[in-house]
TrEMBL record, chains A, B:
Its EC number is 2.7.2.4. This is Aspartokinase. Residues 389-454 form the ACT domain. Belongs to the aspartokinase family. It catalyses: L-aspartate + ATP = 4-phospho-L-aspartate + ADP. Keywords: Amino-acid biosynthesis, ATP-binding, Diaminopimelate biosynthesis, Kinase, Lysine biosynthesis, Nucleotide-binding, Transferase. SUPFAM superfamilies: ACT-like, Carbamate kinase-like. It is an enzyme of class 2 (transferase). It comes from Bacillus atrophaeus (strain 1942). Catalyzes the phosphorylation of the beta-carboxyl group of aspartic acid with ATP to yield 4-phospho-L-aspartate, which is involved in the branched biosynthetic pathway leading to the biosynthesis of amino acids threonine, isoleucine and methionine.
């Protein structure tokens, strides 16, 4: 049995929904379909989720947003018309939306979250209606009825373990399950969304709960590329990679699959197959627990910009019990998350995403580190890029580091930082943002040149 | 004005003391002489400090230690006889030692500390007598009278800042100052020792307090070598290096100069000259704030064994605010100090000296990490060596990493960990202990082959 998830671009129009219909019905083992809200039809288009956020915000500020509401409903109406569906479904969506918009605004975060989630919820209703219209036994299932409970963290929900048992009971149902992605319910009964693009997470949770054999994730690319195609032209596609490799790649700039979405599937050992709605014949990329390493040590290279480093030095730091812990505590006091903490004998460097702090917070932070820790020197460097070279086979491959650093050196890239822990499946290089492209190209050339495009 | 410090092997016999006399008197700017206790005369010999520790321990357990006491006094007596000194000085040393041994034993740590320190203290008295005997105006100065105050941490004293002002007043004295190394006094008036080999620290403190132009540290090697001579034959000598480079090298296995001893000199910007008592004509090694980089990016390679790594992985660790801090807190609860913390997205590795924990503590620690942090996996790996490749010029030298990792790769050394932070003057490689020698030899070959022995 398979759980299939479709992203927003796969559901942006009636034509796209027809492709979805053919994909789902082509394989009778496809039991549950998780859907996003309608996405962009073309690059200038606006996603329904973004329209809904704007709509909710305008309702909060002015109590009304007629144009935005109509724009949302129009997107569903167009699709329904294209597919010759009964207008009744659009009336239902309109009613549901206005009920929500006129609901309790005393908790604005909660309010916006519920409106946001309606994009997926109404799309699931529409798609269930479409499948029924085509004579398929299909049913919209509400996450509350299904028992998908999450923590009360709007925009950042975490699934509660009991949900898996609840969802397992969906197996008893006949016919197709059409399930909205992106949100669950708090124990108090409120809609709470996952982080953005969280429909991938819903699909993974459902696959786990239903104990599916496969979680298929349909998107708009043929496969996960081994490197960002905007940096390297026509890069190699990855046919198979492990959860860990995928996690490392999706962390730093690979947006094909949601960062957190792998976990439920990973925990249940369910393979994830990434496929293209617009080209379902393409092999796609399979994410598995273990794989054969046939194509060299590196499976992919990811990079991301917007990092800064806080370098802290203090003579005899090494001797001071608790220094590193205290430095991290100060970051925690400012709710800052960090990525890496390379250290020397008398210094540590904390690397974090720089958009977490503005100039004022940065000055405060530096002062606190200087004063509380009696640091000799605190230096912040902005605009760094982190490059992850990822591959399980790097683990005990003598020479991978040498190849990577030689490639960077020959490209005249200065390595600001290196981080490679034991049992690592990745190697991290920190470089200046201006050198990111050159660095990634050099690494790709080193590890993928001469490898046939599969 | 110069402060000169002599190590134990430079003071082990009358013949050695004659060399010391010639060195000190050859340069009238040598004002203060800091002395260790008599060291080994040959490789099978026992240091006076070790005899004293055994003596103190036996006094605590049995109230007496006649043979050990005589062995200590005999060392001084032999030197006095060799130098034709009045026996009166030996009587004074004997009286001082027995007064201490019969003193208050209610605090054994304090008691042993005071006995240990008498090795230096009595040697300073003996050497002052010798210089006087030779017609030189020289005076033993007691650290208490001089105002060298330290924290009350026996075996790990830290100098109190007021000491520097107190010591400055020694400038007013005429003639040579003979000052015992290794200890100061607590504000309560107790003898408190620095960490082992702490006479280097005393010399550095005195140089700072006296605002000396140079701190000369006489030992038994011609210079600091660029690599451990027991791993590479006839290695290059280092003629000049910076405080930071020295600190990084002395940290990992370079025992020429005490790890902490550089700080007071560093803070006052006083150069440190390391020279050989047995070959004072040799150029030696100079430690300075800044130096010209003429001989390539690497100044030295140090390595040390006996490390272990604790690898902790947890899915989505990266997202959990405070994870690293909590892990370090657990180590702190066990009073464990760590060296490096390389990290991945979902894992961190903590590298520490393995002699800090026994099997039972290790099992407890792992259990706490697993339970408190809900870690997915905790793996401890023992018997690692850390190799430090050190050089200020590495900082912005494109390609040093590549050269180092290529050299290791060609020597078939598997790099378990790499750590290189921003603004680093060193690069750390973790390898298995069994591969340490091969790794160091390969790195030396890469960075020093073809460089003329200066």
């Amino acid at each position: 049995m398979k759980v299939v998830k479709f992203g927003g671009s796969s559901l942006a129009s009636g034509a796209q929904l027809e492709k979805v219909f053919h994909i789902v019905t082509a394989d009778p083992s496809r039991k549950a379909v998780v859907v996003s809200a309608p996405g962009k039809r073309h690059s200038e288009d606006t996603k329904v989720t973004d329209l809904l956020i704007a709509c909710a915000e305008q309702y909060i500020s002015s109590g009304d947003a007629p144009e935005l509401c109509e724009a949302v409903i129009e997107r569903y109406a167009e699709i329904a018309q294209e597919l010759h569906l009964d207008q009744h479904i659009i009336e239902r969506i309109r009613d549901d939306l206005f009920t929500l918009l006129n609901g309790d605004k005393s908790n604005p975060v909660q309010y916006i979250d519920a409106i946001k989630a309606s994009g997926e919820d109404n799309n699931a209703k529409l798609i269930a209606a479409y499948f029924q219209h085509k004579g398929i036994q299909a049913e919209y299932v509400n996450p509350k009825d299904a028992g998908l409970f999450v923590t009360n963290e709007p925009g950042n929900a975490q699934v509660l373990p009991e949900s898996y048992e609840n969802l397992y009971r969906l197996r008893e149902r006949d016919g197709l399950i059409i399930f909205p992605g992106f949100f669950g319910f708090s124990k108090a009964g409120d809609v709470i969304t996952f982080s953005r693009s969280g429909s991938d997470i819903t699909g993974s949770i459902l696959a786990n709960g239903l104990q599916a054999d496969l979680y298929e994730n349909f998107t708009d690319v043929d496969a996960v590329y081994s490197v960002n195609p905007s940096i390297v032209k026509n890069p190699k596609e990855i046919s198979e990679l492990t959860y860990r490799e995928m996690r490392e790649l999706s962390y730093a700039g690979f947006s094909v699959f949601h960062d957190e979405a792998l976990i439920p599937a990973f925990r249940a050992g369910i393979p994830v197959q990434i496929k293209n709605t617009n080209n379902p014949a393409a092999q796609g990329t399979r994410v598995v627990s273990k794989r054969d390493n046939t194509n060299g040590p590196v499976v992919g290279i990811a990079s991301d910009t917007g990092f800064c480093s806080i370098y802290i030095s203090k003579y005899l730091m090494n001797r001071e019990i608790g220094f590193g812990r205290k430095a991290l505590q100060i970051l925690e006091d400012y709710s800052l998350t960090y990525e890496h903490v390379p250290s020397g004998i008398d210094d540590i460097t904390i690397i974090l995403r720089q958009d977490q702090m503005d100039g004022s917070m940065e000055r405060q932070l530096i002062r606190r580190i200087e004063e509380d820790l009696q640091a000799d020197e605190v230096i912040v460097e902005h605009n760094l890029a982190l490059i992850m070279v990822v591959g399980e086979a790097m683990r005990h491959n003598v020479g991978t580091t040498a190849r990577a650093s030689k490639a960077l050196s020959e490209a005249q890239v200065n390595i600001e930082m290196i981080n490679q822990g034991s049992s690592e499946v990745s190697m991290m290089f920190g470089v200046k943002e201006a050198q990111e492209e050159r660095a990634v190209q050099a690494l790709y050339q080193e590890f993928f040149a001469g490898v046939l495009i599969s």
